[in-house]
Design brief:
The chain is mostly helical. It contains 21 helices and 7 strands.
Length: about 525
């Protein structure tokens, strides 16, 4: 370092003050520099305290801890990165991985944090996904399900986070080779001294399945399980499917399906010696293609069998109708030949064929077993066409159908007992309907009588008294005498004549009915 004022090279460094100055001209070259020395001071109480703050690698500022300072002094981003590194270290220790996996996974996590991929997702899932990405790139034998065993989470949740992270980061991960897991699973199955031989045969089976398109699109665990089971049987090790499933962590359906797919290939027909000494150059079709061809073949055979059954039960008239449809199709397309095999359809004799078909069908109906007893009875001389004289009641089936009085009573009781609730509900509805109809009739109001106007005021008053009651305190007999209605009869409307309210007293009735 040279002085900017005098270009002198004699620079003195003061570590206590954190500054550098030139001894020639006294120019301060640097000040407030971060020093690595640890210095101590004395507090007001006399206690020794450390002066300065510790700055980590990659930290943007010093920690603001101490008397009068609040919080931890670390930024949220720094805390997130620190916690993610701690989680990755814990996973690395649990899965027995190397130390360089931590730095690479931490860089992937920092990249995901910069792209805001961690928002809305658990930090533990993102940290595990970053570490699994490193394992895939390093072609390590650790599987995703191993992470779920350590974290005790669902493999589908962790797999969704891993797939989303790979998609957003635009990573191109290599395809997993099942051979990476063969040695690991073989060691867990404890083959002893023949472990290496089993690994060789299992790896050869993986290559054979890859050539026969069985490995494409399949998870490596299922391929490894099927190959290890076959390799163990080749060396006389009796390993059950349950043991393979527990080690490889697959379902029994997956294991059996991989074995069936290998059985359908040419390699499945080889003996043990031929398999070890012979390598087939030909490759089988993909399992999906083979399964589709098998399904199509089965559907075609089922359709042919159904067609044969329909032709065997086809009547002459139906056969002729089918021939007519074929004939119409050929008439619509004149270029087609009307010959089918050695037979040729004659359009002119079509009507005659119809008549013969009707005759054959009716003859087959008349010769049926169900109509033989009718023809035999009609052939007898004592056959009487009168239906009333037929004694069909002697038939056992008809006698068993007709019930006697005791059976009728028993069956009626059973029916009533089974349908008791329905009958009671029906009776309640009928009673409710009758009550409703009666209430409607009672609610009908009696039409009031209309008093007709009389010729004189006296006659009008008499008509009004005949139709309307004024008060209970009036003596209508005396009032009638005062009005002099003995010789005249009040006039009311023709539709209401003689109608007196039901609540009117007897004296009102006498006034209305006075002659």
């Amino acid at each position: 370092m040279a002085c900017k004022a005098c270009n002198g090279t004699e620079i003195e460094h003061d570590a206590a003050q954190g500054m550098s100055y030139c001894t020639g001209c006294g120019e301060v070259c640097e000040e407030n520099t971060i020093v690595s020395e640890v210095t101590f001071g004395e507090a007001a109480s006399g206690a020794a305290v450390v002066q300065g703050s510790f700055v980590r690698a990659g930290q943007t500022r010093a920690n603001m801890t101490g008397p009068g300072r609040f919080g931890s002094g670390q930024e949220s981003r720094e805390m997130t990165l620190y916690n993610s590194r701690r989680r990755i270290q814990q996973l690395t220790t649990a899965l027995h991985l190397s130390e360089h996996y931590i730095d690479t996974a931490q860089r992937y996590f920092q990249l995901a944090l910069n792209m805001q991929i961690t928002r809305g997702r658990r930090a533990m899932y993102v940290s595990a996904a970053c570490l699994y990405i490193v394992c895939r790139q390093e072609k390590n034998s650790v599987m995703l399900i191993d992470f779920t065993d350590v974290l005790r989470v669902s493999v589908f949740k962790l797999g969704a986070t891993f797939a989303k992270l790979v998609n957003l980061l635009n990573l191109q991960l290599p395809i997993v080779d099942p051979s990476l897991y063969i040695a690991r699973f073989a060691g867990m199955l404890q083959f002893g001294d023949k472990t290496q031989q089993v690994i060789v045969d299992a790896s050869r089976l993986v290559q054979r399945m890859d050539r026969d398109w069985i490995r494409t699109g399949r998870r490596p665990a299922g391929i490894c399980g099927a190959c290890l089971l076959i390799a163990a049987r080749l060396h006389n090790f009796r390993r059950t499917q349950r043991e393979i499933m527990q080690v490889v962590k697959i379902a029994d359906t997956t294991l059996r399906r991989r074995l069936d797919e290998l059985r359908l290939t040419p390699s499945g027909n080889l003996s043990v010696s031929d398999f070890r000494g012979l390598w087939l150059e030909q490759s089988a079709d993909p399992p999906a293609f083979t399964n589709n061809r098998i399904k199509a073949r089965r559907a075609m055979l089922a359709q042919q069998e159904q067609q044969q059954q329909s032709e065997s039960t086809e009547t002459p008239l139906q056969r002729l109708a089918r021939t007519g449809n074929h004939l119409q199709t050929q008439e619509g397309n004149p270029t087609n030949n009307t010959e089918t095999g050695d037979e040729q359809i004659n359009v002119v004799d079509f009507d005659g064929n119809v008549d013969r078909a009707f005759a054959e069908e009716f003859a087959s109906y008349l010769q049926a077993e169900s109509l033989k007893f009718i023809t035999s009875d009609m052939a007898n001389d004592d056959f009487n066409p009168d239906v009333s004289t037929w004694s069909d009641m002697d038939d056992d089936e008809v006698n068993n159908v007709i019930l006697n009085d005791e059976e009728v009573r028993t069956k009626t009781e059973m029916w009533d007992r089974e349908n008791k609730e329905f009958m009671e509900e029906l009776e309640r509805k009928r009673q409710a309907r009758e009550l409703d109809e009666g209430a409607r009739k009672r609610r009908k109001q009696t039409r009031k009588k209309v008093a007709l106007p009389g010729a004189t005021p006296l006659e009008s008053a008499q008509n009004m008294l005949a139709t309307r009651r004024l008060s209970k305190k009036i003596n209508y007999e005396v009032l009638g005498k005062l009005l002099g209605n003995q010789g005249s009869k009040p006039k009311v409307g023709p539709a209401h004549a003689g109608m007196i309210p039901s609540g009117a007293p007897s004296r009102m009735i006498s006034v209305a009915g006075t002659p």
